[in-house]
Design a protein that fits this description.
single chain; Uracil-DNA Glycosylase, subunit E; five-stranded mixed beta sheet; two-stranded antiparallel ribbon; about 40% helix; globular
């Protein structure tokens, strides 16, 4: 695993989400800042009871500076709506705050963050969780699971089931919306994603 300095020196101990967003633009905790347009931190109310954690910003998110506003984000919005969740009432973020990609001509193609990137970026996610204090964390995909639970956790084996994070916060895992976009059985897998989000709603209401 490539070891990076880590984001901790750049994460402000004081201030709210706006201070966090500003400080993230100066982060040099790993090498991803070099190619990315900007850091993309979480978005949503500080009082959100539910936090959704994905992988990293994609091409559209990197350009616009907001999480989940590209194709996967639009699919997530549809799934949240069908599950009875108002996106404006949840906090949405990613485990890694800069876009990792490779180039094919002029196109920027998503590249999965390395373990070193996930570890280096951990303090940003930890600070977001401290500020928002969600009652429930929804883990979207394997990278978020690696960041929040650890390397041994399998989303496909544990999706939709209540779990507890190391600090005692309730969580539930499901697939990343981008995997539904790539699926050959998109309608079926979209339905399963909605089912998992409904399970999250029930857990939050229990």
């Amino acid at each position: 695993m490539t070891r990076f300095p880590g984001a901790e020196p750049w994460v402000p101990a004081k201030g709210g989400l706006s201070a966090l967003a500003g400080a993230a633009q100066e982060c040099r905790g790993c090498d991803l800042w070099e190619g990315a347009t900007q850091a993309v931190v979480g978005e949503g109310p500080r009082t959100a009871r539910m936090m959704l954690v994905g992988e990293q910003p994609g091409d559209v998110e990197d350009e616009e500076g907001q999480p989940f506003v590209g194709p996967a984000g639009r699919l997530l919005d549809r799934a949240l709506n069908e599950a009875g969740v108002d996106r404006d009432e949840v906090f949405v973020t990613n485990a890694v705050k800069h876009f990792r990609f490779t180039r094919q001509g002029k196109r920027r193609i998503h590249k999965t963050p390395a373990v070193g990137h996930i570890v280096a970026c951990g303090p940003w996610l930890a600070r977001e969780r401290e500020l928002v204090e969600p009652e429930l964390v929804v883990i979207l995909g394997a990278i978020a699971a690696r960041a929040l639970v650890g390397p041994g956790f399998k989303v496909t084996e544990n999706r939709g089931r209540p779990i507890e994070l190391s600090d005692g916060v309730a969580a539930i895992a499901t697939v990343h919306p981008s995997s539904v976009l790539r699926s050959e059985e998109r309608a079926k897998d979209f339905g399963l994603l909605v089912d998992d989000l409904r399970a999250a709603v029930r857990l939050l209401s229990a």
